[in-house]
Each structure stands twice: as structure tokens, then as C-alpha cells.
Amino acid sequence: MNILHVHAHPEPRSLTGALKDFAVQRLEAAGHAVQVSDLYAMKWKAVLDASDNTALPPGARFSATQDSRAAYTQGTQAADIAQEQEKLRWADLLILQFPLWWFSMPAILKGWVDRVYANGFAYGVGEHSDTHWGDRYGEGTLAGKRAMLVVTIGGWEAHYGARGVNGPIEDLLFPIHHGTLFYPGFAVLPPHLVYQTSRLTEADFPSLREALGRRLDALETTSPIPYRKQNGGDYLIPALTLRPEIAPGETGLAIHTATRAAE
């Protein structure tokens, strides 16, 4: 496979950095082609602004949505955006690796998404009608590709459990899994999570490395999270609400995953 590894940690000697290095070595040893976007090393510009459309006249009013589309369709995007989009086209699988900061991804990685996911590239595609509401949530320009998160977490696993004070990790990662990845079409694999990172020692690293290695070895065979496709019949269009006969009376994020045997 062609694999794009997007890494977001400011310290290359960190646990996250060491696991990134191991992952690249493991994947290449298995015969995969790997490209790495190390955002801090690249000094990635995280802010979406008027300079991302190189054809925007000085002083012109900037529209994040409209100028993103104009720059993408007219070929006037900033060069770093176009380069990352080309990597995504090339990749069969995307790995996003980052520490969990304030219940989400670091700002530099969010900025990568904001800028690379241009209007016309990752959103704003497909027809809108009474039966089809754009190519998204299981469809889109990145459909047919896989994606997985590798997340290092300072807290205990129990803190992120079903009754943990921080909330279930599945819920915290839902905006990334379902929104950032499933929205433009990725099949999203279950995440690889490493907890209590501040308490780990060098002696723990071999077992952490091998646990990640087992996940990497199974990238092509691991079943993705069974999110419901927006245009697959489970949602009313254009309301985009789950049909009342599906998970009747239930609410919450879990209803957007088809986990029941009857479904």
C-alpha cells in the first residue's frame, strides 16, 4: 500500500516521535511505500487565511469557503496545500498520529485539515437532490481509502471509559473519526491508543512498539468502524436525520454506527 503518515508532535524525541519512527520502519519493512508529513518539522502554517488563494487581490474580502473553492478549481492554492493534497491522492491509507491535547488534536494538525481539505477537494462535492445530499459521510473524493488514528494520551484508560470522568474515548474521537475522516469518504479503522504516557518508562517501550506493530501488520485486514453512509438509506433526505424505525427512541453518537446484528 501507499501510506501517508501525518505526525503532529513538537518533540521528535518524545514517545509519539519514537512510535512514529518505529511505524515508518515497520511499514517500509513490510513492503509499503510511506510518505511522512511531520508538521512541526515542516513548520506547517496552521492558519487558513487569504494567503491560501494566491490569486486573491490585495484587500479583497476573504471567504474561507468561496476562496478555498476558487483556489482549488483555478489552481491558485498555496503550494504547501497542493502538495499535501497530492499525497492524499497517492495514499491508499492515511495515519494521523498525535497526542490528545484538550480532548482533541493539536492545533497544527487541525490547521492541516482546515487548509488541505479544500472546498471541491474534500467537501462541497456531489449532487444535492431529494434523494442524495452531496458525496459525503462514506462517499466523496477520498472514498476507497483507509484511515487510522494513533493517539498518545496522558490519562488512564479508565478515565476515558464508558463511565470515566473525561467521557468515552469513542465519543471524544467521534468528530475526527466521523467528521474529519468518514465525511470525505475514508473507511475508518479503530484507533490505536496509548494511555498514561507520562508514567511510561524506557522499559515499557518494547511492548508498546510491538502492540503498535501488530496493528500496522493488520492495516489491510482490519474491519473499519461501521458508520452509516449518509446516502445509504438510513437517513431521511434532506433532513439528514436517522429514520425513526432505526434505533427507535435512541439518541447520541452511537446511533450513527450500525452495530446491531439486525442491521
Net shape: globular
Oligomer: single chain
| Biggest beta-sheet profile | 6 strands, parallel
Low-confidence stretches: none
The CATH architecture comes to 3-Layer(aba) Sandwich
Q: Which sequence of SSEs, written as H and E, runs from N to C?
A: EHEHHHEHEHEEHEE
CATH fold title: Rossmann fold
Question: What's the total count of β strands?
Answer: 8
Radius of gyration: 19 Å
Proportion of strand residues:
5-15%
CATH 4th-level superfamily: Flavodoxin domain
Distance between the termini: 31 Å
What percent of the residues sit in helical stretches (DSSP H or I)? Answer: 25-40%
What would CATH call the class? Alpha Beta
Separate helix tally = 7
Query: How many structural domains can be distinguished in the coordinates?
Result: 1
Mean pLDDT: 95
* Structure classification: alpha/beta
Architecture overview:
- This protein has 263 residues and is an alpha/beta fold.
- The protein has a single domain, classed as 3-Layer(aba) Sandwich (Rossmann fold).
- Strands 1, 2, 3, 4, 5 and 6 form a six-stranded parallel β-sheet that branches. Strands 7-8 form a two-stranded antiparallel ribbon.
- The protein starts with a strand and ends in a 21-residue tail after the last strand.
- α1 packs across α7.
- Helices cover 30% and strands 13% of the residues.
- InterPro entries: Flavodoxin_fold (IPR003680), Flavoprotein-like_sf (IPR029039), NAD(P)H_dehydrogenase_qn (IPR051545).
- This is NAD(P)H oxidoreductase YRKL @ Putative NADPH-quinone reductase (Modulator of drug activity B) @ Flavodoxin 2.
- Its EC number is 1.6.99.-.
